[in-house]
């Protein structure tokens, strides 16, 4: 069983439309739709925005639906200046940029007393996502570090800092909490994010304008990769 999470309705609408034999369930305030896609058993859900929602959603997928892979699909703001709106980032790893224990001497983004705070994505899922992306949108796919925090970023200085200090390719609000829950449960994950904005002063306008287009691209990649997993 593969868990597929989006944070917003736009990000899962196409997946829900493509599901066969769909059965709905409600758990911990989140609606889960189980069914099949290209003959693979999947559960699709909308986590809601932010790290806590995404963490609860992922743990329920693992405990109640026994998923053995998790794919997060959606949109993100670019940090890498080489990324354009519509480009796609497949996570090499994910890190929570808003954990800040610097006052106690820990580097920004480090969760104290843990083995890692930068969770590597599953190599096989990354490969499958890249192959699907390279086939559908050649020249528009990157693999890079996804940064997550409970903030919508719309500030050029902050973009430069997140890029310089944490080496992020893109920024969003859920991926690294999904990654942490998956790592703690030894479940493979990958995050696939289409760029909807550049996390700068125009981010709010671009986010609104490009979210549907960018979500469509993310869906196309998930749909294609499921045929090869
Ligand atoms: N998701 C899409 N764009 C984003 C941004 N600029 N900041 C955080 N999450 C986002």
From TrEMBL:
InterPro entries: MTA_SAH_Nsdase, Nucleoside_phosphorylase_d, Nucleoside_phosphorylase_sf. Pathway: Amino-acid biosynthesis; L-methionine biosynthesis via salvage pathway; S-methyl-5-thio-alpha-D-ribose 1-phosphate from S-methyl-5'-thioadenosine (hydrolase route): step 1/2. Residues 2-226 form the Nucleoside phosphorylase domain. Transmembrane segments: none annotated. GO terms for biological process: L-methionine salvage from methylthioadenosine; L-methionine salvage from S-adenosylmethionine; nucleoside catabolic process. Its EC number is 3.2.2.9. It is an enzyme of class 3 (hydrolase). It comes from the Bacteria. The keyword Cytoplasm does not apply. GO terms for molecular function: adenosylhomocysteine nucleosidase activity; methylthioadenosine nucleosidase activity. Keywords: Amino-acid biosynthesis, Glycosidase, Hydrolase, Methionine biosynthesis. GO terms for cellular component: cytosol. The keyword Hydrolase applies. This is adenosylhomocysteine nucleosidase.
